[in-house]
Specification:
8 helices
Length: 209
């Protein structure tokens, strides 16, 4: 029997091939229409070259038989999230936000896992994925409060001031992650009496008074 990793290679190659086909078709259509792809996207639109392959990977995750598409779903979610972050930073010039937005990358991996788990009815993957989303979101929120305060005031934050709602959100995310998403043990019966095993009957012997 072939291993699961070997079976997934054709699907990974297929997803990469889909990306190449889409890029080639877009470039060919642009040339036929006399459009300059660089001018069409604009100086700040280059992150779409990251976003589009990420979306393609997400779509390609639906092609293999579950759970072979899990890796594509996680990779597509990560690549798409990085592209969206780059699009925000390129549009605003806020490149210093990398100090904390990196935490959204593991959160994106968890989101891809959770969505794939929902699509394939795998509750364990949904729980594991949501746990990553909660942890990454809480780290991003704490980093936003800490670093944005330093960027704005030039000193380490000691007074909560207007940032206390961010800390409340981070605390809430951590509470959800620790209370709701923690692994649960097997369910115990709450009703009925314990079942006692029956003894095998002795064959060939009749019951005596």
């Amino acid at each position: 029997m072939r291993s699961r990793s070997v079976d997934q290679r054709p699907w990974t190659a297929a997803a990469f091939g889909i990306v190449l086909i889409i890029v080639g078709l877009v470039a060919l259509a642009g040339r036929q229409l006399g459009l300059d792809l660089g001018e069409l996207i604009g100086a700040q639109g280059w992150p779409f070259f990251v976003i589009v392959p990420g979306v393609v990977l997400l779509v390609a995750a639906a092609l293999p038989v579950p759970p072979e598409g899990l890796g594509l779903a996680i990779a597509g979610s990560i690549v798409t999230t990085i592209g969206l972050i780059l699009l925000y930073q390129a549009s605003t010039g806020h490149w210093s936000s990398w100090a904390y937005v990196w935490a959204l990358i593991p959160a994106a991996a968890g989101l891809g896992m959770a969505i794939y788990g929902l699509a394939t009815h795998a509750s364990a993957r949904v729980s594991d994925g949501l746990r990553l989303v909660v942890i990454g979101g809480a780290l991003a929120a704490l980093g936003f409060w800490y670093f944005e305060t330093i960027f704005e005031t030039g000193r380490v934050p000691v007074d909560l001031g207007q940032w206390w709602p961010v800390l409340v959100i981070a605390a809430g995310l951590l509470t959800v992650g620790s209370a709701v998403l923690k692994p649960r043990g097997p369910a115990r019966p709450t009703t009925g009496s314990p079942v006692t095993p029956t003894q095998p009957e002795l064959g060939g012997e009749a019951a005596r008074p």
